[in-house]
Amino acid sequence: xxxxxxxxxxxxxxxxxxxxxxxxxxxxxxxxxxxxxxxxxxxxxxxxxxxxxxxxxxxxxxxxxxxxxxxxxxxxxxxxxxxxxxxxxxxxxxxxxxxxxxxxxxxxxxxxxxxxxxxxxxxxxxxxxxxxxxxxxxxxxxxxxxxxxxxxxxxxxxxxxxxxxxxxxx
Length: 170
Hints:
It is a single chain. This protein is α+β, with helices and mostly antiparallel strands. The protein folds into three domains: about 5-50, no CATH class; about 65-120, no CATH class; about 125-160. It has helices spanning about 95-105, 115-120, 125-150, 150-160, and strands at about 5-10, 15-20, 35-40, 45-50, 65-70, 80-85, 90, 110-115. The longest helix has 23 residues, at about 125-150. The radius of gyration is 26 Å and the shape is flat. The protein starts with 6 loop residues before the first strand and ends in an 11-residue tail after the last helix.
């Protein structure tokens, strides 16, 4: 699932609020996450400057590269590794043909990346996601340890005095 319409409203003074969105693919940059102002609301007259609230972000990807992952040897003949006329390895098959056709219509460049078993399991998450997951698990463990070692007063604060759970170990 791709989230395409993300907008942010920020008050810039007593009278105006600006509407920003993100255009990750544009003429100047690929993967650009800087907010771009697309509209302004005047709270004094209670009116938007224009009727522009959404920008089509995926109609043209401005030649930006997108990584196309495939699992080698597991999806033949849908995606296969073949030699081209010069002896270079290239992807072929109906799935890759579909990706090439979409790349022509949306103006992006497909880059292929072979995934082994390890990558199929761990590649979907970035380092930031793994760090966040680790911090969440660590915090959960700390809270569980504190709860196990805490007094009844702290237990009631953390869990709630009206919550009925299995009996605590004392």
